[in-house]
Amino acid sequence: MKINWFSPLQPASTDIAHYTGRVLPALQSRAQVTLWTDQAEWDRSLETICEVRRFNPLQMDWAEMNRADISVYNIGNNPLFHGAIWQVSRRHSGIVVLHDIRLHHFFDGLYRVAWRDLPAYLNAMQFYYGEEGARDAAECFAENARNIDYMAEKYPLTEHAAENAIGLLVHTREAFERLKADSLCPVAYAPLPFSHCGMRIADCGLESGAKTHTVDSIQPFLNPQSEIRIPQSLAPPFRLIVFGYLSRNRRLDTILEAFAELPEREQFRMDIYGEILVNERRLRSRVRSLGLKSLVTLHGFAPEAELDAALSRTHMAINLRYPTMGEASGSQLRIWAHALPSMVSRTGWYATLSEEAVSFVRVENEKEDIQSNLKAFLKDPERFALAGRKGREILEKFHSPEAYAHAIVSLAESARAFRPRAGFMKLACTAGARARDLFGTNVADELLRRISEKIHAMGAG
Description:
The chain is α/β, with parallel strands linked by helices. The chain folds into 3 domains: about 1-105 and about 155-190 and about 405-420, Glycogen Phosphorylase B (Rossmann fold, 3-Layer(aba) Sandwich), CATH 3.40.50.2000; about 115-155, no CATH class; about 200-400, Rossmann fold, CATH 3.40.50. The chain has 16 helices and 16 strands. The chain has helices at about 15-30, 60-65, 80-90, 105-115, 120-140, 150-155, 160, 175-180, 250-260, 280-290, 305-310, 330-335, 365-380, 380-400, 400-440, 440-460, and strands at about 1-5, 30-35, 50-55, 70-75, 95-100, 165-170, 185-190, 200, 215, 225-230, 240-245, 270-275, 295-300, 315-320, 340-345, 360. It has a 7-stranded parallel sheet with strand order 3-2-1-4-5-6-7, sandwiched between helices. The protein has a 6-stranded parallel sheet with strand order 13-12-11-14-15-16, with helices on both faces. Helix 1 (about 15-30) links the parallel strand 1 (about 1-5) and strand 2. The longest helix is centred in the last third of the chain and has 39 residues, at about 400-440. It is globular.
């Protein structure tokens, strides 16, 4: 099977680029993959695995596209990385991998910020959500998306992202249950993959006597000699870490306030790694005003090797998300790869995680729960270390790139079988729209019913 795979690629500053790197070796072993990117630069080591082609959504090589059996489009919430991919997906049907389910931020970034196209935005909102949706969209556009979180919750625009899909893949059961009820095309669920790459967990003297073991699955492309080391010392100062792409929903202000008000804060040190997508100057000022300059270090973006080294020195990760866009978390899988205990928000995908593997923070009680988890850690750090080991077990059992690649290929077979039916359905929709334009709504409804019956018979035949 030949697969066109549309995705951001490393070094793009999105975890979806890393996700493609993680799954690519396993997928290439089952199919002939061509990577498509609109980036000017990408990690050239990808070309040792498969062909990489650059595309412009306005000047596509359709002949080359059609040589593949299926196209796979990775869609997330950042229009800088996924806008061009979505544009191609509207013109060439394929599988859409939804990395987020609430995608209003994505479309706001296109229609309002990039294109300044209010009519197209209103048309989309009118089509999917009627007059109320269009009115709220007009207000959101006029006020520069000040209520964007409300819009994402009430009007996720998931269907707009998948409007030309002949297959959908999601990474959470919540998304799967919702979409399979509403979608005509095949829908699949596969846990987000993460390659542990032969990384060893080194036994560094934990009193539990946990054994050193080696993961059997080794992917040479992804640094197979990496070693996961649990910090030798379970004594203060304990190291905390927050990392990833740090937007408003990562709750940095709340985390810092909770830390500043913790009486035992001197027993911790906090490292913050990643691209800060909010006002970095304001965040640094906040660290100073809270009296945390000696306890909190902002490192900025770090290459994977540096981040992994930092994680190997860490005792606990803080991985809060609110609001969540319905996504699974590559950051959480990286935390588990390092057998680290972690705090997560009790919402969305995170709420489905085992209490044996994570410590929860309630959305309505964030500061208190952060502080109570830190105090509990000080009383019994060994219990938290065991939770990190449980997370590692979950990672190895459910998140292998090999199982994910198998799910992609299986869905591709179902999507190819669905493609003719999708064509007839699209023909019926086009005929209905033309009928309404020509004859008006009353006449067109009966005419559309007859046309649909004929087209359905053609498809069934």
